[in-house]
Design goal:
single chain, alpha/beta, Rossmann fold, seven-stranded mixed sheet, 10 helices, binds S-adenosylmethionine
Length: 280
């Protein structure tokens, strides 16, 4: 498995810890299995201010937003870009008829399939794994896996964008905007540029670099980035803000006007109704 794919076991370990709390926000009964020992070792190695509470918040924010997209908006195609060790296909209460596409590197998908080999697929839903490099052309393999360009899609890009160079981030976000039918939704997270530059982040960033999975991209203006890539921003939330706290965030939230603050942003975007897909 590539070094960057190990980080999927890190985030799975954080989900296991949340699951094992009495006041858990969600239950991921598969998280400990897919995290394996390495996931918990990385949790210790990358320990830093707010990592574990942030991952609990991110998971909860996205779980709820995913629920709204499929239950209230009726979206039936869900694409996890860099699914990693995400087990939402198994653990969320999907409506009948949902097809979940999990895109990630081949070695990660193979390892995950082995670890979850004994888990039966829940009834009423379909999962397709698509082995790709998201910095190359991945749209052909997605279409070959059965994805329909004319139907709205829920795209989820969780825990990926900071690992990519800026141009790859822009290409990815623009590609999904061009591919998706009107009514599509994009959910995900991105960090601030200051998170890459603040001296307090340096030990954590050094560990990521030493392990071969450096953080490369951040922006102070996620609204602008998403709009430039063709998305209509419905909301941006920092952990600790209303709708992204869930009783987990232990720190104050500095106003956006305060500069040089390491931040994470959770986002929900829509595809404007006027959108005409170009790459279908
Ligand atoms: C931090 S994990 C996040 C996984 C999952 N979304 C989560 O939140 O737990 C980063 C994931 O990005 C995947 N990844 C990184 N670069 C990639 C690329 N170029 N193509 C496909 N997947 C990639 C890794 O394999 C890994 O699964």
């Amino acid at each position: 498995m590539e070094a960057v794919s190990r980080t999927a076991q890190w985030t799975a370990a954080a989900r296991a810890l949340e699951t094992e709390r009495e006041d858990r926000l969600f239950a991921d009964p598969y998280a400990r299995t897919v995290a394996d020992t390495i996931g918990f070792e990385l949790l210790d190695r990358y320990a830093g201010a707010g990592t574990v509470p942030f991952l609990a918040i991110r998971t909860t924010y996205l779980d709820r937003a995913i629920g709204r997209a499929v239950q209230e908006q009726g979206i039936r195609q869900v694409v996890f870009l860099a699914a990693g060790m995400d087990t939402r296909f198994h653990r969320l209460p999907w409506p009948d008829g949902v097809t979940v596409y999990e895109l990630d590197r081949p070695a990660l998908l193979d390892a995950k399939a082995r670890m979850l080999a004994d888990e039966p697929a829940p009834a009423g839903r379909t999962r397709r794994t698509v082995a790709v490099d998201l910095t190359q052309d991945w749209t052909g393999p997605l279409k070959e896996a059965g994805w329909h360009s004319e139907q709205p899609t829920l795209w989820v890009v969780e825990g990926l964008l900071f690992f990519l160079p800026e141009q790859a981030v822009r290409t990815l976000l623009s590609t999904v905007a061009q591919l998706g039918a009107p009514g599509s939704v994009l959910l995900g997270d991105v960090i601030s540029r200051a998170a890459l530059e603040n001296p307090l982040s340096r030990p954590f960033l050094n560990s990521l670099e030493e392990d071969g999975n450096p953080w490369l991209f951040g922006t102070e203006e996620p609204e602008q980035l998403l709009a430039e890539c063709g998305w209509q921003v419905r909301e941006i939330r920092q952990p600790g803000e209303e709708g992204a706290d869930f009783g987990r965030w232990p720190y104050p939230v500095p106003p956006r006007a305060t500069t040089r603050v390491p931040r994470s942003f959770l986002f929900t975007c829509d595809l404007p109704d006027t959108h005409e897909g170009e790459a279908r």
